[in-house]
Amino acid sequence: MTCFAQVRKRPLNKKELAKNEEDIIETLSNSLVVHETKLKVDLTEYMEKHEFVFDAVLNEEVSNDEVYRETVEPIVPIIFQRTKATCFAYGQTGSGKTYTMKPLPLKASRDILRLMHHTYRNQGFHLFVSFFEIYGGKLYDLLSDRKKLCMREDGKQQVCIVGLKEFRVSDVETIKELIEKGNATRSTGTTGANEESSRSHAILQLAIKRSVDGKESKPPRVVGKLSFIDLAGSERGADTTDNDKQTRMEGAEINKSLLALKECIRALDNDQGHIPFRGSKLTEVLRDSFMGNSRTVMISCISPSSGSCEHTLNTLRYADRVKSLSKGGNSKKDVLSSTMNLKESTAQPLSSGLPTASTFEDDINDTWPDQNERDDFNAPEDSFEQEKLMWKKNGKLDQYGFSTAENKLRKPNGQTKWKEPVRSDIKHSKSDDDLNALLQEEEDLVNAHRKQVEETMNIVKEEMNLLVEADQPGNQLDDYISRLTTILSQKAAGITQLQTRLANFQRRLKEHNVLVSSSGY
Q1: Per the annotation, does 155 bind a ligand?
Q2: Which InterPro entries does this UniProt record tie to the protein (predicted)?
């Protein structure tokens, strides 16, 4: 498993310029410096510098084409060599994650098709596309009318999405149509932070499959896979006071999944024996990205403004952890060297052959939006606020995972390495248990309602048969009355049982301070 951490800095937007906020990030070829303004005890300001080194640092002048060449293009050829590759963006609200991720799948599919038609021509390779989302801890197929899916592990501990529909594609136009269809179906909503916010994690997969022994009659086998993950954004508690019940539960599940992702990164960085991939559906899906023969590219999107300094530092710290997650005998330098050689060796087939699919990319900007549009970065779909956990320690509150100078260690090269306490005692916190219990009770209530409807339909059929018999000459009145009494009792018992379950669920929501509308759940 090899992970690459790359950072992209966006320009100051219109709102930040109006507030006279400064650009506090200085970028170099593969490093950057964050200038954080702090206050001494006597309220005197001083400047603290935080230095970070990454595989690549992309400043605000870098276009989307250059981002693709630096991040995804080097890993496209290796998926033909039984490798699973993943690309996902990470960062705070308004840092430009959606803007960065949007053009990457189309560009990658174009290069995959070129390789299939030239380097691997007549070798039985086929490209399949699937698109699903993780919403409220559940999986839905975005290309099949949001059909509910199930996640299972096979005998080899490989994650399988049961019921996921895959489409075999042979041109970029079809892929573009599928992506647009999935994005239109994806769950969005209005929150206290954003007017239009993604409320789910979207996963787009490009799978390379090969026919067994060249026989089309048998199902093709997966050779490699390239996944693009657009993470949903979290919210601070202060931003959710005006949200309704559904939005608050969505936010809780999103925050839980993002924290579970941090836990996995933290455990991998500390070389722990157990990696908590089962902490959420998101980390279960990402399991293949961090284990075995895999390549993972994390694009950390950061805001340059002084008002976002804390969030920017948090993003860079986790990107620094991902950078060191190179498991195996190869050093990071060797892995980078081999990847660059691979990129150079595949440059010819990627730039020649099929006609350039410019008609499908004209609507994708390769530069940042102009000044009048930059304020969009304050409320993108994939907003992400770093969530903070607090607990009592030695009689006072300490912030977990975002500690100050007393919790960090200085590396020889000046780069900051953050050391955080072990969270083994709070992995299964009460809040997580309560959230899981509420989600399970919600699913049980829906299943009970569905079962009640099915039973009611059967009872209605029995009533119709009873009425037909009652209209027949010589019908026994005693038998009619007895059977009708039984039917009415069954209907009343089913309704009473469902009402009791509903009342219990409403009481549980009120106990956990979740708003319930006057019309009921």
Answers
A1: no
A2: Kinesin-like_fam, Kinesin_motor_CS, Kinesin_motor_dom, Kinesin_motor_dom_sf, P-loop_NTPase
Residue-wise pLDDT tens digits, 133-152: 888 888 999 998 889 998 88
Most confident among 130-134, 374-378, 415-419, 428-432 (mean pLDDT): 130-134
Exposure string of 68-83, with b = 16+ CB inside 10 Å and e = fewer, is bbbbbbbbbbbbbeeb
Say if residue 97 carries a ligand binding annotation: yes
Report whether 94 belongs to an annotated binding site.
yes
Q: Which of helix, strand or coil describes residue 58?
A: strand
Instruction: State both tokens at 292.
Output: 């075995």
Q: Is 417 annotated as a binding residue?
A: no
Is 93 within any annotated ligand binding site? yes
CATH of 2-189+196-238+245-326, one of 3.10.290.10, 3.40.850.10, 3.40.190.10, 3.30.420.40: 3.40.850.10
Tokens 């799978």, residue located: 207
Task: Indicate the domain borders of the chain.
Answer: 2-189+196-238+245-326, 442-512
Q: Which two tokens stand for residue 127?
A: 């490209």
DSSP string, 336-384: HHHHHHHHHHTHHHHHSSSPP-GGGTTTS-SS---TTTGGGGGS-TT--
Was 307 annotated as part of a binding site? no
